[in-house]
Design brief:
Blueprint lengths: L2 H13 L21 H6 L1 H8 L3 H7 L4 H8 L7 H7 L7 H10 L16
């Protein structure tokens, strides 16, 4: 979850006159389908490695335990479809982009990455 996407959703909510008191899931796009979450619960590292080759090795290079990091993501599928449909929310900072930046050593992609609550 990127703070800039949260700010985008907040502004969209303020500008939207069709909603009153409503709740929306605001987060990055999930890089897996809802149907794949059964596998996610059983073997998250294998699923991530299929989509993001070298993930485990890259996390180890950053002194992270890849399996522990993936457990922090949780095991519940939180759909953001309602926010997309009702607010026009479109997250700009998703895992594939973050991963690509991490592989390239681009620390400017997410300037808050080294804060303790981020996890890496």
């Amino acid at each position: 979850m990127d703070d800039r996407d949260v700010a985008q959703a907040f502004m969209l909510g303020l500008e939207n006159t069709a909603i009153d008191f409503d709740a929306f899931n605001i987060m990055a796009d999930i890089p897996f389908s809802e149907n794949e979450f059964a596998r996610w619960r059983k073997e998250p590292l294998a699923l991530v490695e299929e989509r993001f080759l070298g993930f485990a090795e890259l996390m180890v290079q950053h002194d992270e335990d890849p399996e522990n990091l993936l457990r922090k993501w949780g095991y519940t599928y939180w759909s953001i479809d309602k926010a997309k449909e009702r607010l026009g929310y479109k997250p700009n900072y998703n895992f594939p982009e973050f991963y690509a930046a991490c592989k390239e050593g681009n620390v400017n992609h997410y300037p808050y990455a080294n804060l303790p609550w981020w996890g890496m």
